[in-house]
């Protein structure tokens, strides 16, 4: 079946739920046993819940994986993924990435003996050099948050396999509608389901999807042992959002690309970072491994801090807020918001300067969004 059909039907069979067209919310902590020592398909909601199972089956179908796993937050998904590793393991990590992920590596897992080594994954020679020393995994964001750098997934997956490393790819920015990393050889796909998968800014959640049976088994054990799973109400909300994922992503993509082209010609803007623009240095790679560009991108503003703050305070339709992927448009200043947990000198080395703005372009009429930015930039 096609993606939009799978998004609506995968994970739920009405015949198994009294004909209910939508997956019911099984808001229960425990389930009765059939007899002594004979549990039914579910016994305790940390170990499994029918609403969560519906979401997890849908996620696996959308990403082309064997199993999906739903978590309470995106960071819970990342934490569970990192528990696949042991003290002494070395992980090669995208050198520009989400601030919360950087904080998790540096303030939590480094103390546990799991070391992150930051590598520019655009540079395959640099990756080969880093792999000369054994590494347990390669941690990828593509596009990166917020610089919109891309990783050649097929090439990195091939190098990782040759060196015995697991590949983990954050696919939050594009969703499986525009990119399917497992099809390109990646081992584990990760999502903040808070973002495009849910799409309505009314839930937080995370997901891992894998194709290899051994990894599926290990993630399943960790999800249960750590108790990082998502609750049934949150799973229901993500499932509801997924049903419109295809149509939403198409509109996000159209709106964001139109705004990126408009910003590129604006005299107050010094650079637009959007992989759908021919000016993006990895535009050809975007066309090769992505079927669309998503609704989130960044740009740089001329004029210093005063002009930047006028823009952030001047918008009326865009909401100054963290997160992305909702139906409403958001504007974010990474240096003081989503990436504030990264030390300033590290941010500068990454390229996340004070002049950088990130947009999550929503589903409002694109003319209204451009008019809002135009008026704010005019200030």
UniProtKB/TrEMBL annotation:
Names of required cofactors: pyridoxal 5'-phosphate
Protein name in UniProt: PLP-dependent transferase
MF annotations from Gene Ontology: cystathionine gamma-lyase activity; cystathionine gamma-synthase activity; pyridoxal phosphate binding
Family the UniProt entry places it in: Belongs to the trans-sulfuration enzymes family.
Keyword ATP-binding: no
GO BP: any one term: cysteine biosynthetic process via cystathionine
Modified residues (N6-(pyridoxal phosphate)lysine): 195
Keyword Chloroplast assigned: no
Family annotation (PANTHER family): CYSTATHIONINE GAMMA-SYNTHASE, TRANS-SULFURATION ENZYME FAMILY MEMBER
One Pfam family recorded for the sequence: Cys_Met_Meta_PP
Species this chain originates from: Paludibaculum fermentans
GO CC field: cytoplasm
This protein's UniProt keywords: Pyridoxal phosphate, Transferase
